[in-house]
Design brief:
Length: 502
Amino acid sequence: MNAQQLLQVEELANQAYTSTLLPERNAAEDALKIFSSSPDYNVQCRFILDNSRSPLAQTIASQSLLKLVSTSWHLFSSPQRLEIKNYLLVYLANYGPNLAPFVLASLLQTVARVTKYGWFEDNTFQEIVDNANKFLEATLAHSTIGLKILNELILEMNQSTQQCHLSLTQQRKVSIAFRDKLLLRIFNIALSSLKQIVSQSATMDEKIQEQSLKLALNCLSFDFIGTTPDDSSEDLGIAQIPSSWRPLFEDSNTVQLFFNLYKQSVSHQFSTIAMECLVQLVSVRRSLFSNDDDRGKYLSSLLNGICDILRNSTGLHLQPNHHEFSRLLARVKTIYQLHQLILVDCYSDWISLVAQFTINSIKSLNWAPNSVHYLLALWSRLVSSMTYVRTTTPTLLDTYAPQIIEVYINERLKNAGNADNDDSETELITEESHLSEQLEALPYLGRCKYQITSAYIVSVFDPLATEFQSKMSHPVTNDIILTENRLSWLVYIIGALMGGRL
């Protein structure tokens, strides 16, 4: 390829991405497909990257190179494969800080894929963390790229796809080998960076903070045993942390580090990433710990940190944080038994603060409608465990559960009777999956103190039924619909309490 041909490629790239004429755009795209048609064109892709300063031409070259690696890896010789890897790393070192984000993203993905495909072919491919460390030791811009390399590598190793040079079995073998050799080392890199962030919060670059948090989250979310649950069971997931990681989790400073990071980052959008890390820390398998004492200390650190957030409502005014925090609370009961929670010194404070948070969240149903499900599930699991607790320490659940279900009923009826919410309430009642999600937690809550709950429902139902009968005699369409919505909710709630499986 010469300079004249490069100008033609830049013009075609410009037409492919910016032309408003469909025939011209399609013709340009067809002409550019040649760069991903054969492994021989990897040389031309690299020439474009080396010599063009057009982000659009660089995008064509980087995406074509990624496609060539993904679909034609078996056609490259071993020296060519190493050459591509080394070229990409040198290119990122020389030009990475000035690349457009979308070009950088393609190149990082290519580096990760080359590493995955070549993992068992040559030990040089397994030196990727050493390669990334060279970026981390350079400028701030290079450090960000180094962290992005590691992030992209984990994401690539953690996914298995049919459209791959490797079979699913081979992909899993690479993933396991990566987990055993490099993942703990990468997590320690993330922790070191995060500790530095906490100690130098005023001067630390925001991009470094965000990428470091993402790196920790990707490490903690790794599919350690190859059994990623489907979306429907996402919140039953347990983080199967390897035993070799045990010292990090038995050190109370690890948990405290992430609580500090969350509180320190609430003014930034990446505070949610810190909260997601905490969700994963709560999800760590109980069998990871050496004994009950270490497990109890870890749980105590978690509950104390949660109490601190609840007392100050730290960052919970932000919807993403509120949602992730609700997931975190639900995970606490998924992982730990009620009798273990009761043994923690701060249990009474924790359950009281969680109850108040739940009540406040229910009263803000329209603000955080997707978070309430997790909170109701938490209380349902807590109450259902009361039977198995053999201790004189009060659980306090019989105090808070009736309050929570009464507030839930009251807020549901209030929303159903609000003309501004008419459409959304009607949709929720008629959509079976949404409805069952809301109601499945109620039987346990309602039967905790059944006499109190039933008396409250009767006190609400009788006037509402009388009101409905009266309006049927003098119908006003919109008014009747609102009353019907309220009555429908109450009937569904009664049905859930009476027919729910315990």
